[in-house]
């Protein structure tokens, strides 16, 4: 069995905070992709085909640059090289505000880059204000 890399809680929380800020600001998809390793994976939502590599991750997040969002970290847990967190995203659209509160699980490198991300949510979790 391979032993997990340990990272500090502060490092994991800092990366998650920068991720949520980048999701909210999203001036360019590369801003979000810069938080990931070159060979990282994103499965959003869990059960969908994983997105692999920085270029694909940037393309996945590109639609975020088309709308205004705000994010809020609701809960955070750290263990070893991973963190699980619950957060709220509110996306402002012409038809109203779309809100979702996913649960994400991320693994990190020792320098705090995201090596994998899994988002737990389903269409039933999306609310419209």
UniProtKB/TrEMBL annotation:
Protein name in the entry: Steroid delta-isomerase
Originating species:
Williamsia limnetica
User: Does the keyword Isomerase feature in the UniProt annotation?
Assistant: yes
What Gene3D superfamilies does UniProt report for this protein, alphabetically? 3.10.450.50
Q: Which residue ranges does the record assign to the SnoaL-like domain?
A: 16-115
SUPFAM superfamilies the UniProt entry points to = NTF2-like
Which GO molecular function annotations are given, in alphabetical order?
A: isomerase activity
Q: What keywords appear on the UniProt entry?
A: Isomerase
């Amino acid at each position: 069995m391979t032993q997990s890399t340990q990272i500090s809680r502060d490092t994991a929380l800092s990366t998650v905070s920068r991720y949520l800020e980048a999701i909210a600001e999203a001036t360019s998809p590369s801003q979000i992709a810069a938080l990931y390793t070159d060979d990282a994976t994103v499965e959003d939502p869990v059960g969908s085909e994983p997105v692999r590599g920085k270029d694909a991750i940037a393309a996945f997040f590109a639609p975020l640059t088309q709308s205004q969002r705000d994010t809020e970290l609701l809960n955070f847990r750290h263990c070893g090289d991973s963190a699980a967190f619950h957060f709220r995203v509110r996306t402002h659209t012409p038809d109203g505000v779309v809100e979702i509160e996913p649960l994400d699980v991320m693994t990190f490198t020792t320098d705090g880059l995201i090596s994998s991300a899994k988002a737990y949510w389903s269409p039933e979790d999306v609310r419209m204000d």
